[in-house]
Amino acid sequence: MKPSRFSYKRPASWDDAVKLVLAGARPGAGTQSLGPMLNLRLARPDTIADLRHLPDYAGVSVRGDTVRIGAGTTHAALEDGVVPGRLGQIMASVARRIAYRPVRTRGTIGGSLAHADPAADWVAVLPALGGVAVAFGAAGERRLPLANFVTGIFETALAPGEVLRAVEVPMLRDAARWGHWKFCRKIGEFSKATACLLDVPGARPRAVLAALDGPPMVIDDAAALLADPTGEARRIVAGCPGLSPWRQAIAEAALRHAVQGARA
Amino acid sequence: MNAGATGFGVGAALRRKEDARFLIGKGRYVGDITRPGMLEVAFLRSPVAHARLKRLTKPAGHEQQVFTIDDLPEIKTIRANSALPGFRVSEQPVLARGKIRHVGEAIAACIAGSRAEAEDLAGACELDYEMLPAVSDMTRAHLPGTPLLHEDWSMNAFLETHRNDDVSGLDAIAAAKVTRTLRTSRQCMAPLEGRGVLAEWDPRLEQIIVTTSTQMPHVTKSGLADCLGLDEGQVRIISPDVGGGFGYKGILLPEELVLAQLAIRLGRPVRWLEDRFEQLTAGANCREHHYVITAWADEAGRLLGVECDAIVDAGAYSSYPFGACLEAAQVGSILPGPYALPLLRCHTMSACTNKPPILPYRGVARTGVCYAMETTLDALARQLGISAEAIRLANLVRPEAMPYRNLVGKVFDSGDYPEALRRAVAAIDVPSIRARQAKGEAVGFGLATFCEQGAHGTSVYHAWGIPFVPGFEQAFVRLSPDGILEVRVGVHSHGQGMETSLAQVAHTILGVHPDKVRIVLGDTALTPYSTGTWGSRAAVMAGGAVAEACRQLGDRIASIGAGLLQVTRPDVVVADGFVRRIEGEGSVSIADVARTWYRAPQNLPKGVDKGGLEVTAGYRPDPDTGTHSYAAHAVVARVDLETGAVVLEDFVVVEDGGKLINPMIVDGQVLGGLAQGIGTALYEEMPYDGAGQPLAATLADYLLPGSADVPDVRLEHMETPSPWTTFGQKGIGESGAIGPPAAIVNAINDALASIGAEVTDLPATPERVLAAIAAARAGKA
Prior knowledge:
A: 264 residues; Uridine Diphospho-n-acetylenolpyruvylglucosamine Reductase, domain 3; Enolase-like, domain 1; 3 domains; 5-stranded antiparallel sheet; 4-stranded antiparallel sheet; 10 helices; B: 781 residues; alpha+beta; Aldehyde Oxidoreductase, domain 4; 7-stranded mixed sheet; 18 helices; disordered N terminus; flavoprotein (chain A); Carbon monoxide dehydrogenase (chain A); oxidoreductase activity (chain A)
């Protein structure tokens, strides 16, 4: 199938981008999700605002203990180590298992997060890493916690007229332990269960269970999970409504494996 | 003339000639071809499975760009009849007329300058229909009270078949008896290139030229002429490079007929390119089987009999030319497999449901039947406490019995079936797997053996009474003035490397270097009639025809060459591109013979054959009941008890395709089929809901195995020549796709044997595997 007719705009400034979006334009980044949706005519925007040429849309900068990652930074750039330090290692390990390299060279961290597919990798991982999403609207920048940025299936905390400009994630010490596990039947398949766990010495361990039929579940204090992975995983998953026995089983497995990974 | 010795002939692992263009992206497919003034077509397709179509309102101002069946009354319905007794023939309108019978059924053709605009038109049409209850469960489709798809039928079934051997006494004498209910999922074939059609009217020739991605151009031509009421001479089918066929491209599509009639009507070229959404939701359906199967064996594992009730979901229509029963009606004849089975009781039903028509897919019926038989054998072996190898060895037809006629009348030509099995088992370290199992590891070893009838001809197919019957295969060969050999055949190549294999055959007979052999395929105006490339027949049939034509041409070349050498015909042979005296010095090149015929006829010897250097010759093996290649597949699989995921640790194939014309191409055929077989076993599934809606509309939902999901396969060959074919070659194109589901599930079930769990339904998804484990544990508790 081919897309229905749309106009293509390439805003040169963030203000222009916001004006377009306020007027109903659909923001486009790497179009790895939007492209198929256009072709299948599931999305029929009048206008697409291509964000890829905005200043500082892609790229990484470190300010103090925080790394700011431009929303247009590709998975491939993250895979290739554009983020420094322990955080960069973790993000690279996540990025290299997103779909296929050709997808990663176009798909972006911000596009994926704003699209808010429950099975997407950054939707699961960023809430565990903490930090904030930087939204840009008519009133300028606004910071939203990543822990509850994704609010539902294809739903985020972005207000109408806002676009996602960057994410700001705290840098991690080398001692930070990390576990991440997802279940895909084949490379490139959407995850059917994802879990990750960040354990920084001296801080509360944080876990996320995602690829559910809704927003990711953030477990703010995962100490119990670390102490009793099997029992606690069962308890957590039992609290997720509507999962088939198999989805429950792999969700529990995901949590256990995330713990294992963080302990390894 | 042992061409293998020259390194170019039959038996040589020659690199494929056609890859010179494919590897640099210069293949030419329908989608690469445009014409001045060409219009694009998009089809408005049904969103519902079963409905009465009341009215279609065309978008205002664009009425002339939208065509329904009422606008194209010239096109007859597609009727793919069968002579099998009791067959109910369907009338398939090329665009829905009065009734809608499956989601995706074409209702109107919309024409515009671009595909996107044509889709806009389709989206702007308003459909008014009255919903009818959908028939989506093949096991219940035939029940009284079910709404009828074809209202003049008495039940929703194309055909039932019966074979009624008496198995009633077996309970009393059998040492073991098992019954299993098994299911294979509906699949969609997924050739890299979809279907595509470009139709244009040639006013000079008064001919409709249809460039279409088909593997059977001549059969398509006949079907198209029939349905459009044209003389066959008014139809030319061109099939350029074809990016995978697998059976899907043997089908005469309603879309082909609509496009041809539109081109005639409009006097402008029109094109339709199938997209993946159409392919998945409206087109390439295949393989949905349901079995209730019982088998009895004695203490040694020898089969005493099999009883089987099989249903195949044939969808809404009987597709042209193979019909709706190619799968179900073959279950009974394929079930005995490579085994000496004494008794078979079998009932089959080709159920008619609100789904797209079932089409033949590589392996046709055998993949499902092999799955049913081989998993049942393993269940018997488990009950008897004997090995999977032992139960097969107890039943395989023995080499000294060849040629062997089995209880359903199939004749196996040659081979050592037990040896293939022994080699496959020997290639696996079975004791180490048993040791791992003893430590509690969920790892298993699985086997499957089967044989593949290929290149079966007239004597087999005339009884089916479908719209075509394969007869003598023909090849046209011509020696050009420059000594280039041109070979024209009516089969086609869609991945099989025919341009190479047939050049090797020609080289074997005439000694012309394969680089100097031009193979012409895929154009009904240029090639002799053939039913095309299907049924693993091209190497045997076209290979035989090319050899025969080259032999006859060689005789003419030899006669002229002898004259030029001033000796007689018996004094010379044709070898290595020369006519040579058998005794004494003296030779003349084939190119010189050609030059003499065309450019210096004054030098031709007296009494020369006036037919010159062009020959059309025909070939059919005798008997033509088909070659039987065979294979043993051995698999090591590990099951993750936590998630149900299956990892293939090892995969061994021992294959006997008779004399291999090009072993490298045969390896490619087996490996490609194997990937598809792994898809059937573990990934591919097109679920339909109760309303007849397909639930896997994209390749994100319809999973195909990727390169990382197919293990390194260890492939071994045996080469038992067929006594009936030109070089001893056998058809082998489908083999790889037949064995994997059976071997893989047998390995899974072996891994789960200690738990007592068995997988019965394909694909063996993690969810199904885990459910089987849970069911076994619940049963024990």
